[in-house]
Design brief:
Length: about 450
């Protein structure tokens, strides 16, 4: 192991230069004017992977290519892990808000500033450098590794989903490592072990066949906006719980270990309240704000529309009112079942004076890998040793759809070892990647593989 760590320490400035070369390529997947740049980035990546001793290939898809790169394979003889990342980046606009141009990487204050620095080029590049250190020092990794780096993450990963199904056998693995999440601070390296799921629906309450004069008709016909408000208002009780029968039926409870871990997270309630800018925090009774926003299910109204929205007043009974609703889900909740329960309750709440229309939207299941499991514990050890601080365990409140796809298609769990700091400006102007996170991340990766290989 020592030669690997020495190699990483010796070549730090070259790694930074190479990362800057990678960041100079404007691989904006959403803008067709950059299609050529996206392909050039995939080519650069293949060439770079080959130069460090990996067997690399560019795979054509219906849209942007996917790059795979493997260490020498020993199928069936030793464990095989995947490293997932994406080389495509978000559009850099608005350009005038960047202090230095987005595709002219600049190092200042110990960070490299460029579009894609942390999301996600810098993060998977750290893993590539770790593997380079093994290959160049002739040190055995103990396991086989395949990098899968796609070019469509920022536009929905459609090609990757098809690719996973097609290459299912080749990509069969014992686990996937993904560095595309965050850590609360450099003193709090983190393993994210759970993601919430989601389910969406749109409902419309239909009243009179047209907007009516409220002076002539008001009082004799029901008002869809009021009906909808009353229905929606009944979906939450006084304790901040979702008032839909059966909603909590399958919810996985937080363990004492998880609750203890969550108490160690750095942002306290006052800081959090200031961050979100509300006069007082709200939430389900009996849970901390960390738990409420990552480990408990919710129901939110995302949009609410009815009646006249223009200037001045307009005295009408609106013809209809509609709302967009999503629920964030936790492990064991089935998105379709939750939608069914919610739909049933809405129908029950709806009076006979109006008609109710429900349209189901997208859904994704929650994700959870036991943090006490051997893979998670190996990752925590690697984080502790490389960052020199006790790592924290995170649950993310949002979803990362591709993680579910890995589980569904390859049957493997993912370790989410994010290297992004809260102020790294992902998707925003002045995106940056902290160089300590880069180098510690490479060391973390180097320390991780032998541990995972031993399991
Ligand atoms: Zn992104």
């Amino acid at each position: 192991m020592q030669p690997v760590l020495d190699y990483l320490a010796t070549h730090r400035s070259r790694f930074e230069e190479e990362l800057c070369q990678y960041l100079r390529l404007p691989s904006v997947s959403a803008q067709s004017s950059h299609n050529k740049d996206v392909r050039a980035t995939a080519d650069w990546l293949v060439k770079h992977c080959r130069s460090i001793g990996l067997k690399a290939k560019k795979h054509a898809t219906d849209f942007h290519p996917i790059v795979t790169a493997s260490t020498p394979r020993h199928p069936g003889k030793r464990p095989h892990f995947l490293v997932y990342g994406h080389y495509d980046v978000q559009p850099p606009e608005p350009l005038e808000e960047w202090n230095t141009p987005p595709f002219e990487p600049t190092i200042r204050n110990g960070a490299v500033y460029a579009r894609g620095a942390t999301d996600n080029k810098g993060q998977h590049f750290a893993h590539l450098k770790a593997v380079e250190a093994f290959l160049k020092t002739d040190t055995d990794l103990g396991c086989d590794l395949t990098f899968v780096i796609e070019g469509e993450e920022e536009v929905g990963s459609e090609s990757l989903v098809a690719f996973l199904r097609k290459k299912k056998r080749e990509l069969k693995c014992d686990g996937i490592v993904v560095s595309d999440t965050g850590m609360p601070s450099k003193k709090h390296p983190a393993l994210t072990y759970a993601l919430r799921g989601v389910t969406a629906m749109e409902i419309t309450v239909w009243g009179p066949k047209a907007d009516l004069h409220s002076g002539i008709y008001g009082g004799s016909v029901d008002n869809p906006a009021l009906v909808l408000s009353q229905m929606l208002g009944s979906l939450r009780d006084k304790k901040g719980r979702v008032a839909v029968p059966g909603f909590y039926g399958k919810v996985q409870k937080l363990t004492a270990y998880e609750r203890k871990q969550m108490k160690r997270l750095p942002i306290n309630e006052t800081q959090y309240r200031k961050l979100v800018g509300v006069p007082k925090l709200f939430g389900e009774a009996g849970y901390t704000h960390h738990e409420q926003r990552s480990a408990r299910p919710t129901l939110e109204i995302n949009g609410l529309t009815s009646g006249y929205q223009g200037e001045g007043s307009k005295t009408i009974v609106p013809s209809w009112a509609s709302a967009k609703i999503t629920c964030r889900l936790v492990p064991n909740q089935d998105p379709r079942q939750v939608n069914r329960l919610l739909g049933k309750q809405l129908k029950k709440l709806c009076p006979p004076t109006v008609k109710l229309e429900i349209v189901d939207g997208h859904g994704a299941e929650a994700y959870h890998v036991p943090p006490t499991g051997s893979m998670s514990q190996a990752a925590l050890e690697a984080l502790r040793e490389s960052f020199g601080h006790e790592p924290v365990l995170l649950r993310e409140g949002g979803s990362i759809p591709i993680i579910n796809e890995f589980k569904k298609v390859l049957g493997a769990d993912s370790l989410l070892l994010g290297l992004a700091l809260p102020d790294d400006n992902l998707h925003s102007p002045n995106e940056k990647f902290d160089l300590d996170c880069f180098h510690n991340g490479a060391e973390m990766s180097a320390r991780l593989w032998p541990k995972l290989a031993e399991l």
